[in-house]
TrEMBL record:
Signal peptide: none annotated. This is hydroxymethylpyrimidine kinase. Keywords: Kinase, Transferase. One of its GO terms (molecular function) is hydroxymethylpyrimidine kinase activity. It holds the Pfam family Phos_pyr_kin. Residues 16-263 form the Pyridoxamine kinase/Phosphomethylpyrimidine kinase domain. Pathway: Cofactor biosynthesis; thiamine diphosphate biosynthesis. Its EC number is 2.7.1.49. It comes from Sphingobacterium anhuiense. It comes from the Bacteria.
């Protein structure tokens, strides 16, 4: 009798009880794209579509134990890291992951929520750069986060190019500077790679406030496509298309009083099965 396996994906991220961002968005995205979703909770933000009210920490030992529990059993084909809001949490995640075989890793340096609420402590940035950047195959900051990392103002496409080069110089392999906040009809994101020229990904801007969790969704979609064996460039292109459609299909929905979620399940894929050899 033949045996099969699912492409397995792991999200290490914060909670969103309103369901649009964080670990919930990641699990929805992994599942919608045919992957098997596992998760590790890093923090418990109290939030809804209006914004973040408070952040409750998760014990560091509990985070390490969660990671080891998954890595020892349902070993992932790709990992997405999201909200890590303290230096101690960064250290815990990095040290725990280094015990295991390297797999494709996407790090979304969550610093600012869609609502504009700053989610990260200043001293955490140095720890991220020192410990998580070297482990990541791709960093996915939005324009605000790219500005924080590069220590420059990022408002235009030219600013994005300058910030991307600065972030690459911090020691990461690749960085995708997301242009969702560009004030123009065609949005552009730029993929920077140490070993190749920058690559531009374009999409039409959709007029909607339902973009809560779009960054989480993009990074987890990239991880899902990497788990399926795509290259970084292919995964980014496919993920950008998925997020565009998820925003478009959810653009006319009223859910909550603030920034609503994407429609993650506009076209759900069947669970992928690979034959074991």
């Amino acid at each position: 009798m033949k045996k099969y396996r699912y492409p397995s994906t792991l999200t290490i991220a914060g909670f969103d009880g309103s369901g649009g961002a964080g670990i919930q968005a990641d699990i929805k995205t992994f599942s919608a794209l045919g992957c098997y979703a596992t998760s590790v909770l890093t923090a418990l933000p109290v939030q809804n579509t209006m914004g973040v009210r408070k952040i409750y920490p998760i014990a560091l030992e509990a985070v390490a134990d969660q990671i080891e529990s998954i890595m020892d059993d349902v070993f992932p084909d790709a990992i997405k890291i999201g909200m890590v809001h303290t230096p101690q949490l960064v250290i815990t995640i990095a040290q725990t992951l280094q015990k295991y075989k390297k797999v494709p890793l996407v790090f979304d340096p969550v610093m600012v929520a869609t609502s504009g609420h700053k989610l990260i402590e200043e001293e955490t940035i140095t720890a991220m750069i020192d410990l998580l950047f070297p482990l990541a195959d791709l960093i996915t900051p939005n324009m605000d986060e790219a500005g924080i990392l590069a220590k420059v103002t990022v408002e235009t496409l030219e600013d994005m190019y300058a910030a991307g080069e600065r972030i690459l110089a911090l020691g990461c392999e690749r960085v995708l500077v997301k242009g969702g906040h560009l004030e123009q009809d065609t949005l552009q994101s730029i993929l920077f790679d140490k070993n190749s020229q920058p690559e531009i990904f374009k999409s039409k801007k959709i007029k909607t406030k339902n973009t809560h969790g779009s960054g989480c969704t993009l990074s987890s979609a990239i991880a899902a496509y990497l788990a399926q064996g795509n290259t970084i460039s292919e995964a980014v292109s496919l993920a950008q298309n998925y997020v565009f459609n998820a925003i478009e299909q959810g653009s006319d929905v009223q859910l909550g009083m603030g920034n609503g979620p994407l429609n993650h399940f506009f076209n759900p894929q069947k669970q992928i099965k690979y034959e074991l050899v």
